């Protein structure tokens, strides 16, 4: 008997377009001053997406500011090519962290399990351990698009993208599109 | 004795910049087809704002679509000149009405009383009467900006702008700016 | 110029079917003991609905009990003939009052203005006055059906049905049906 | 026929104990510096309560600070003599206003109608008019106690206490005590 | 020293009655056409419940429809014999999935940990892995009854029932009954 | 490359003051009758905090009562020496369990991941296993203070304090203080 998850995976779209948003005040300020910006986490997501055979159709870099974050997501959501948005940064407990507080209320449906499954596989990493409970990394659905809000750390971004996003995003888009 | 509200009004800013957003699928489609568009409600707001000695610094026309609405508000919020955003349309109970559902979750603080005071003065209008309870017209604060979400009807827009928004918006901006 | 509300009223369905639910522990207990039950508020709603040219297709009497209330509403919602459900009772602040707490979380959309407009016209009645703020009378939409949760008192039921429900329910059904 | 509200009023307790909390940073700072403090709004509530034949059993003055507000309410709630708590101040839209944001989430049940009925009678006062929509004055129930969160202005406090609280608080306590 | 959980388990009721609800549009349509229906997941729950020495007192099969789901739960909740309700189906992210969205708002208390513990043991199954984050399987309490909302897949149902529900449901009923 | 979590840990404050609150009706009643009280879980927290080089600056014992719980937390929050509050007890599903229901609505930000990470490491303990899903143990931030709401069992308290709280609380305070 074929397992249900496997059957769904067969129906997953082969062509998926991603939009990457990096939320980082320090990098944004460098960019504003035309200084060179290294965005390691953004780059990791792009590379993993491409290695998986998917496409990156857009990217933006914004500071930890509710309105700038909102605008970047609104533009990505309004781009008809975009299937999936992944952000990195702003998911923690510093007062400046605003990504989840800004975007989560917009979800038509929150993919509630993304937060806890991500934290629990993070907990399993000896370099992270208890620090795993300090992230609000989240996912949700707006219209027919899927949004992932990842932490800023390169390790966290690699883990989430490789272990959780890429294996299931096609399956999820298939479900969401009804 | 000077009344507290009167004292606050003295401190109100004299120069206030408004951004108007009309939410109307039919007008948006005409615009997309380059047909002439009459936006009576948007025009009423603009005229009343100008007559009050304030300034209109921006305007956009969007359809009843969550993402388009979100984007228009995000751009207005991100415009440093803007103090107040007023929208018209999409506050009722047709399935297409999405303005309040989209923007209210973004309020840092909802100005809860706007909805009920507006409905109750509408109820007093013999042309509206019980239909007054069928609007979700709302107001709220994001950052230091004030947002009003008005119905689409010209009469409703005139009533809200003249009787509720213009008399208190300066006072409110003074409070919100702390 | 024809007013928007008037145009909508023209499109309102002429044939509307109501289901009445009386929530009253004392009457339910009498019914259970096969004693005669006078349900003045339920009777007022029925009579006003019929006088307006509409139809009552169902009625049930339940105690102030979350599960019994839920079941009565579920059966009314599942009856394909029913367009509008009106309940009477259980909208106050006694610990036994559970109607609003039970049904409101099920609304796809709450018709938020019903509560405040109803309270404010009640406040205008010299027999009610400040007691008006002690009701949670509410309305909302589930699927394509409209639900009104009215207080238990005959005067309140008459006021809400005559002044708010009957004048707009056709208009509202027209909107809700998209 | 005796009206239901009148019957309930007959059952209302005759002896009711009030605790008054004034929320005002400026007055609190004066008090801390042992300067003389005039608390006009607090005094109005006390006087009206006493004139109505009820008793004031406690009073505290706190600044617009979440934790100080919380502590004052916790102490009043924990005082077995107290039936009703009335606060004045901190219900507006300045960033410092925190009374409603702090206490409302603690309500077992919010008395939702207090906010809109109060705003609508305030709107009727020509000195207040549209400023009425700028208050979040609220009421609610915790355990068997009733809490009213009033604005800071003497006029608002007098209106709410005379027109809404004193006429119904006995009735409400009777209901709440089940 | 005896562990607290072990002591509670001693007090657990020995006789527990379950009601099973299968939420599946395809099976419901077959049933409506009097075609033979195989409900593998429903059958697994029944069998595991009986093997554990408990009793199945009711069963219903409903489509992925808010009102039908609501009615089935309302009838199960209103059946005085029922201690525990387990549903299977409708917990995912297809637009048709409505079980959790319908029933969760009715919980007096959500058993929040059921969702994340279930997802994390699912993640440990190599056939499920990252797909684990795509379920909203949930549990909660209404009155003195416990409700579990399980996914539709036979493997998920077997895992949840064997590893989470049956080991603790007696303990939980003992707690909930106070 | 130094890992981000390690860098944050370097910035963590060395001196941290804890306030312990035990929520237990049975112990509170003994205390009220001046009988000897053994508070094993409270003692475990104190000992672990001290062994970690931190300080316990306050302690209180309250029954499972919303107002008493609220008051104890309000006093601890209002104590300027206190950095972290840890409570034990009242996080389960007995009707008397009220700690989480009382304090969670006061959080400025909930540290959402604490609940699920704690449950999942509890699940890994063979003495707890599925009982892990029956706790609502939670954490959150009020102002610049961090609050942990732990279960009443000594084993749970030891696990949470050793594995989750002590390793990250300095890091978290550093983040929260901005
Ligand atoms: Mg960051
Ligand atoms: Mg009643
Ligand atoms: Mg003030
Ligand atoms: Mg306990």
UniProtKB/TrEMBL annotation, chains A, B, C, D, E, F:
Superkingdom of the source species: Archaea
CDD domains linked: MogA_MoaB
NCBIfam families, per the entry: molyb_syn
UniProt-listed InterPro entries: MoaB (IPR012245), MoaB/Mog-like_dom_sf (IPR036425), MoaB/Mog_dom (IPR001453)
Record protein name field: Molybdenum cofactor biosynthesis protein
Biological process per Gene Ontology, one example term: Mo-molybdopterin cofactor biosynthetic process
Record SMART domains: MoCF_biosynth
Gene3D superfamilies: MoaB/Mog-like domain
GO cellular component: a single term: cytosol
Boundaries of every MoaB/Mog domain copy: 19-172
